[in-house]
Amino acid sequence: MKINRFYKILIISYAISTFAEGIIAPIYAIFVQKIGGDILEATGAVATFLIMSGAATIVIHRSRWSQKHRKTLMIVGWFVWVLGIGMYLIISDLPTLFAAQVLIALGNATANPAFDAELDDHTDAKIKSYEWGLFEALQDILSGIAAITGGLVATLFGFEALVYCMIAAATISFFLILYYLHMQRVSRYPA
């Protein structure tokens, strides 16, 4: 079974981005507690992220413009998402935490639907179920690996090292998206 190279780049990039977000997920409440929050603030930050992401997705992707400019939306969204992940380095209080959550949500809302459309364009109709299954499986596997990695890194080296891991993974994911777009451009306009 041959899989499209563009599809491979896209799912690897998304898998790495899943790792970047998932590394803190199981210990998020502990992170919030370390900056002075409690369970209510932790759940409020997650709720802010989810509601902002959902609402922004509807607003951003409701027009034909978003379909026409989906590659631009992927780049802008992924970049904003990386900035939001990077904000974890400066989080020292709850307002900064909520600002980071909003930035990450806006990045996801901008990039994810455009990404999904790109990924769908590169799935083979004959093996579409397999390719979407592979995509879903990688998300679950990387989330599991991220969870244990996050716990180990935070235990052994602290939350700052965990944040650096998040930023490194997010940056690699962003560069893979840029590489994907470059490869597409090159393949369309051969020398």
For the largest beta-sheet, the strand count, sense and barrel status come to: none
Integer count of domains: 1
Oligomer: single chain
Provide the succession of SSEs.
Answer: HHHHHHHH
Average pLDDT for all residues: 92
Helix content: over 70%
Gyration radius, rounded: 17 Å
Key phrases:
single chain; 191 residues; mainly alpha; 8 helices
Topology, element by element:
Layout: H1 5-22, H2 28-34, H3 39-60, H4 64-68, H5 70-86, H6 94-121, H7 128-157, H8 159-188
Structure summary:
With 191 residues, this protein is an all-alpha fold. It has 8 helices and no strands.
Verbal overview:
Helix content is 82%, strand content 0%. It is mainly α and 191 residues long. The radius of gyration is 17 Å and the shape is globular. The protein has helices spanning 5-22, 28-34, 39-60, 64-68, 70-86, 94-121, 128-157, 159-188. The mean pLDDT is 92. It has one domain (28-186).
